[in-house]
Amino acid sequence: MNPAPSRRQFLGCLAAGGLAVGPAAILCAGCDREAATGQGAEATAPPAPAPDKQAAATWEPAYLKLHRSGELKKRGEELWKRMSPCKLCPRTCGVDRHQGAKGFCNAGGDLVISSHHPHFGEERPLVGRGGSGTIFFSHCGLRCVFCINHEVSLEGQGARRSTQDLAQMMLALQAKGCANINVVTPSHYVAHIVLALDVAASKGLRLPLVYNCCGWEQLEVLKKLDGIVDIYLPDFKYASGEMAAKYSSLAPPGFEAERPEVAARFSTSDTYPELTKMALLEMQRQVGLAKPGPDGLMRRGLMIRHLVMPSRVGGSTEVVRWIAQNLPKDTYLNIMSQYTPMYKAFDHPEIARRITRAEYDEVVNAAREAGLTNLDVQGDPRP
Ligand code: SF4
């Protein structure tokens, strides 16, 4: 939810017409939490994958089988029930969102979407020639103090939409030639997403579904996504629950006064490392290693992102060692260098700056020493 776009990524999105429409248009919204990779020395920027019509013609997304059997709709309805009382994310606020109540994420029952567009700043195997078909959801359950996209994720900018609208967005992105449907910050709207996917599948959607999330997920919800998601794209932000609670539990303004019952009940993010580790293992079980097809495009697998933060607050060396010890050594790991202090980060001097080259190199070296072999390493972090 934080990484800032590099100038190159930002210009790339501009060139591709990838700017969000609406209030968030001052940002390259698509680069918000995950700007690109493949910009640095190790990534070596291979040429964009050539389209492979044969691979595309024979491949099917995981959710089609469940759509045909009726299971996809059933899962969407089961997730829908988890909104009342809401336990879609680890905050487990227990508010009745179907009655319009809002939990810690600030999302009620209505679906709110900031933008949808082809995005050229994502990891190269997700972009191809048509871009990644990103759909940015408003609000967020994690709520990081340094979020670069705070207008959308924390302040809720966006427009109210129906699940039918969301299905149409998916189909429109496919018609534009996007390589996948990339749902960004999806967890609090996962029921809407699965129901919309079922509608879109009935109308011809055939793109892989990328679940682009913060990593801190409810295991029960993830299990409902088994056979639905093709590519998991989670963050692994923190090794320490204390750091997660400090930097990623920013309550909405007036929260305690307006919603005292929720404030007394919601869970903080100090469970971030524990739950994220469980989530990563479940994701790996469901989709396995991420391996690009003959055309260079990724259609299935686990792709992890770790944002290196200043002053070692993310516990990066511990994060990469855990991945090496608990997942295959060739697990895809994007080590991101683009941290930029934004929003309330300036209230915390230790994270009120960009990272240094030494801080970034320390993490890359730790990942290599731990035996990880499928690293996406980025360009120069500016001190
Ligand atoms: S913060 Fe999580 S549990 Fe609370 S209302 Fe939002 S999605 Fe539901």
Q: Can you describe this structure in just a few lines?
A:
The chain has helices at 7-15, 53-58, 63-69, 71-81, 124-127, 150-153, 163-175, 190-202, 219-224, 241-247, 255-258, 260-265, 272-287, 316-326, 357-369; strands spanning 111-119, 132-137, 159-161, 181-184, 209-213, 231-234, 301-307, 332-336, 375-377.
Q: Could you describe the 3D structure shown?
A:
With 383 residues, the protein is an alpha/beta fold. The chain has a single domain, classed as TIM Barrel (Alpha-Beta Barrel), CATH 3.20.20. 34% of the residues lie in helices and 12% in strands. It has a nine-stranded mixed beta sheet. The radius of gyration is 19 Å and the shape is globular. The chain starts with 6 loop residues before the first helix and ends in a 6-residue tail after the last strand. The model is unreliable at 1-51 (pLDDT under 50). The chain binds iron/sulfur cluster (SF4). Residues 86-89, 91-93, 95, 97, 103-105, 107, 141, 188 line the site of iron/sulfur cluster (SF4).
